[in-house]
Design goal:
The structure is a homotrimer.
Chain A: E1 2-10, E2 17-20, H1 22-32, E3 37-43, E4 48-53, H2 57-70, H3 87-96, E5 99-105, E6 108-109, E7 116-121, E8 128-136
Antiparallel strand pairs in A: 1-8, 2-7, 3-5, 3-8, 4-7, 5-6
Chain lengths: ~140, ~140, ~140
């Protein structure tokens, strides 16, 4: 088994943001030379996520509103007794999930027509990281 | 590392449906000849999902009602400005998640007694696809 | 590709519990001798989950309250016609997800500073199991 591990850095100007990282992941896959296998794309922070869905601005707005409804910002989380104010960001990350595994077939990401990989930031304005690890032959 | 990649096609008569694909995934694992590894089962569409849970009709009905409560159909999603009406299907797919990784041990899916793999369709009545990729030795 | 498969057993005194299993997974990784690859950590039951987030007691309390809000215990699930009373545990497991894939880089779990692996029990007081499968070179 061969592998290549690379890291993506983010520092979003907004607290919440959604960034299409499909091309960056495809670059890692190409550099790895792997023909058959998978690439793991995983947030290294507990207030961010990685998901696969549509690159459509209206939908991204819907996703953001919906996450705020299911896991709202408020000041009353117990987690905030530590001095933090980002309890909602942890819960949003749990819904979206922090990682995806993407198949590599014939040297390329094996996606359907509309699938795109997104980094979802829920507590931004500081440096955060995603690991991209391609594995296979 | 060896691998075998196969695709499952679906065209459900209903808009929403839940299909047990455990036997089909087990077939791919058997054909791959892989003894130790994993099989990735991943929807190739952004309005469908793949999950592991119980093959019990009442529970499947509960899951469907619950998803409709958390991510309801309505006409007011911003995504619908594109002409689509399936905003809810995208959100349902995000909760359920679009993929699972299933361990292969001693040549078989290494599951507990009640685990089954389901394809969850949230915007059916058209041809859709799942990639099944077994990897290992 | 090399692999090592181990199983963790749980029998929690409470119906719901959240157990940090990071050290146990790290032990499997060390014993595997794998330098580059991944470790799959997957609940073998459909009323439990595995997730990655913070080892902070207040947050764990928040997660538990939040899951109860999104997937409440009640007696009216259709699943209960089978004689079960754990419909909510199935739904909680679907939100949290039953598995994670953790990267192994340079022989170690490749995590950010706050990431920890948790076993989430939603229907405890009986013996349950998690598979930990390290794969790589």
């Amino acid at each position: 088994m061969r592998s290549l591990t690379e890291y993506l850095w983010f520092n979003t100007p907004e607290k919440r943001d959604y960034i299409n990282i499909t091309d960056k992941v495809a670059d890692t896959v190409r550099r790895s030379g792997i023909k058959e296998g998978m690439v793991l794309v995983s947030a290294m922070h507990i207030t961010a996520g990685v998901y696969v869905n549509d690159a459509e601005d209206g939908l991204i707005h819907d996703i953001d509103e919906w996450l705020e409804k299911l896991a709202p910002f408020n000041l009353n989380y117990r987690h905030h007794r530590t001095g933090e104010t980002n309890g909602d960001a942890h819960l949003k990350s749990l819904i979206i999930h922090h990682e995806v595994i993407v198949p590599i077939t014939a040297g390329k990401i094996d996606f359907g027509p509309w699938q795109q990989i997104y980094y979802a930031e829920f507590d931004g304005q500081r440096r955060k990281r995603v690991v991209v690890k391609a594995m296979g032959e």
